[in-house]
């Protein structure tokens, strides 16, 4: 399995053979895969070359989540391909590649939707190709097509076999079947821990990211985002909301911009303004009243910046009045509209936390390339990219539960500034009133989104209720999950594997659970307050049920990366804003030395595949907070954690 490296720079590829995915999408859409002389096009996802190579066009951007492995793996299993001869290219522009789970409004890689949106189309594409190849082979052998099958890149029948390469041309002449039945069971590739297709090129440095693009005559720009104050210094370029210096090297451009020191207008976005916006949102939703014995607790989350692993980058050029652009982006169609159309080549993204949902470098590169008449590359400096980063908006909640005679909650009321998803526990009447705060800073997408705060507040509160009534936290949770067997199972599994001790006095263990994207997860954390006064986490045990598994190793990697990122968010210094920009604080990418021991149990399931990105980020903070409460009696009700300011 490999990435077709010829296509990573230009966004498409050509090779001889068969292209199949006809039955998977409406046929009014013309296939858009690039083809060469002798190639036959039958659809949108798959090419089978005369050299035996199987090339899969993947609509979703690779952000480190492994989607360039998972989706081809599903297709190759249905096809019966030889995994060592499978290559990947980014899918070209086309409505057929719209993410239907997110409403079909363009290509978008976000919200744990990639497998959910494209698993079935990929499988259908592989099944269609398999049937067509079998029909071509059956015709040569004079047998019934239904008696043939595929495996390892061959069509098979009673000891006879023909390679896909020899059948591609003949198969292309046949009509695609109206119905292509899927295999009853995996043919040997699905559900296997196959190695990542992007692993080797990332390891040896051959994977091309947006900052690696090199074009003849290319120059480099250093840019600052903001509204210039008055005239910009001589030699700089000014655009709508930006200033840039251009030079023959990126180093010279950065030096020129620093020497010019352009001034910018300030804005009202500061810490006090953020606090006021959150309080205003809370004030607009009074806490519903409850009677009898009640428990009330407040929870808060500061704005959450991305970890900044890859700064925004883009390269653009104009050729005969036509735009070509290369950019890191998780929303290629939205970015294409933002730069005014043309040809956009979405590059792999080097940061998995959602920072590439926007790319402020792309419009700057496009405009400078137009002005200068030559290719221009813009890479924002890491420090400036972090300052202008669209952060996850802050949130706050006041939750109140009414307890019945048996110490079980019979009603829940909530007053929330921020987004609030459904409540999974059976607590009787639920009345949670939420409003989104109009914060004076730029808010955007971050992996986990509203689940990051909602799970923290909910799972911390459930833990507080259990301890308030003297109930063991695991049993208390399970008792509130009638009709939720999958969520109850991940809880009991994580507790059993992690050696749950009841969470009583002297324990350092905490639990949390979460359901999202059609998946379920539970985490047992071992944590205390260390000698330096900060939260110390030494072990994380996770159980996840994400439905039918495509690749168990990818599942574990997704869960592990989400936990590590969430730990960085939770233990970061609190962010501080001035003039609408992040001035200090926020998380940084952790080192291996600070990573706790992580164990992930993937629970087998026959349910439809669910999403993973953001699932484990949601459970880290509450599980760790609950562990700290057990170990020290100190309840952490705000993110990021500040143990010295909370009791």
Automatic annotation (TrEMBL):
Among PROSITE patterns, the record links this protein to: TAT
Origin superkingdom:
Bacteria
- Cite the Aldehyde oxidase/xanthine dehydrogenase second molybdopterin binding domain residue spans from the record: 43-173, 532-570
Q: Which Pfam families match?
A: MoCoBD_2
Q: Where is this region: Disordered?
A: 177-203
Q: Which InterPro entries match?
A: AldOxase/xan_DH_MoCoBD2, AldOxase/xan_DH_Mopterin-bd_sf, N-heterocyclic_Hydroxylase, TAT_signal
Q: Which PANTHER family match?
A: ALDEHYDE DEHYDROGENASE (PTHR47495), BLL3820 PROTEIN (PTHR47495:SF1)
- State what protein this is by name: Molybdopterin-dependent oxidoreductase
């Amino acid at each position: 399995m490999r990435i077709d490296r010829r296509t990573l720079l230009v966004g498409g590829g050509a090779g001889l053979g068969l292209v199949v995915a006809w039955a998977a999408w409406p046929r009014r859409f013309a296939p858009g895969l690039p083809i060469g002389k002798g190639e036959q096009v039958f659809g949108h996802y798959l090419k089978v070359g005369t050299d035996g190579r199987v090339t899969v066009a993947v609509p979703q951007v690779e952000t480190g989540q492994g989607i360039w492995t998972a989706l081809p793996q599903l297709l190759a299993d249905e096809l019966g391909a030889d995994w060592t001869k499978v290559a990947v290219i980014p899918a070209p522009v086309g409505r057929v590649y719209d993410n239907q789970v997110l409403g079909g409004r363009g290509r978008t890689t976000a919200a744990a939707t990639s497998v959910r949106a494209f698993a079935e189309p990929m499988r259908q594409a592989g099944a269609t190709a398999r049937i067509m190849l079998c029909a071509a082979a059956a015709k040569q052998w004079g047998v019934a097509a239904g008696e043939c099958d595929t495996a390892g890149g061959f069509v098979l029948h009673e000891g006879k076999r023909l390679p896909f390469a020899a059948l591609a041309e003949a198969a292309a002449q046949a009509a695609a079947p109206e119905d292509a039945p899927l295999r009853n069971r995996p043919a040997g590739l699905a559900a296997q821990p196959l190695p990542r297709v992007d692993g080797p090129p990332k390891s040896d440095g051959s994977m091309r990211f947006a900052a690696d693009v090199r074009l003849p005559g290319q120059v480099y720009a250093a840019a600052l985002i903001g509204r210039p104050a008055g005239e910009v210094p001589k030699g700089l370029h000014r655009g709508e909301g930006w200033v840039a210096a251009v030079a023959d090297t990126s180093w010279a451009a950065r030096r020129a911009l620093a020497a010019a020191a352009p001034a910018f207008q300030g804005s009202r976005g500061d810490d006090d303004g953020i606090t006021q916006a959150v309080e205003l949102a809370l004030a607009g939703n009074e806490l519903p009243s409850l009677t009898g014995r009640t428990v009330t607790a407040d929870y808060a989350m500061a704005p959450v910046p991305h970890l900044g692993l890859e700064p925004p980058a883009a390269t653009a050029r104009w050729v005969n009045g036509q735009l070509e652009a290369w950019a890191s982006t998780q929303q290629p169609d939205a970015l294409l509209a933002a730069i005014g159309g043309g040809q956009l080549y979405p590059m792999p993204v080097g940061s998995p936390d959602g920072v590439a949902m926007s790319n402020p470098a792309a419009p700057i590169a496009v405009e400078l390339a137009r002005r200068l008449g030559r290719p221009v590359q813009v890479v924002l400096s890491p420090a400036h990219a972090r300052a202008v980063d669209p952060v996850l908006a802050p949130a706050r909640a006041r939750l109140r539960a009414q307890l019945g005679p048996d110490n079980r909650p019979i009603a829940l009321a909530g007053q929330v500034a921020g987004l609030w998803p459904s409540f999974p526990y059976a607590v009787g009447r639920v009345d949670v009133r939420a409003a989104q705060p109009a914060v004076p800073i730029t808010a955007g997408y971050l992996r986990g989104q509203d689940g990051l705060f909602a799970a923290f507040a909910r799972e911390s509160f459930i833990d507080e209720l259990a301890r308030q009534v003297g109930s063991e936290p695991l049993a208390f949770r399970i008792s509130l999950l009638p009709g939720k067997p999958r969520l109850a199972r991940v809880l009991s599994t994580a507790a059993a594997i992690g050696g749950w001790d009841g969470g009583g006095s002297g324990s350092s263990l905490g639990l949390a659970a979460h359901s999202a994207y059609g998946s379920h997860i539970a985490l047992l954390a071992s944590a205390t307050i260390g000698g330096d006064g900060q939260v110390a986490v030494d072990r994380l045990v996770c159980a996840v049920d994400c439905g039918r598994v495509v690749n168990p190793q990818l599942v574990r990697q997704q869960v592990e990366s989400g936990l590590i990122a969430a730990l960085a968010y939770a233990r970061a210094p609190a962010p501080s804003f001035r003039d609408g920009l992040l001035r200090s604080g926020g998380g940084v990418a952790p080192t291996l030395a600070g990573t706790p021991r992580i164990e992930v149990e993937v629970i087998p399931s026959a349910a439809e595949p669910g999403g993973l990105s953001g699932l484990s980020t949601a459970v880290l903070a509450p599980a760790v907070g609950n562990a700290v409460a057990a170990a020290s009696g100190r309840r952490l009700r705000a993110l990021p954690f500040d143990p010295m300011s909370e009791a």
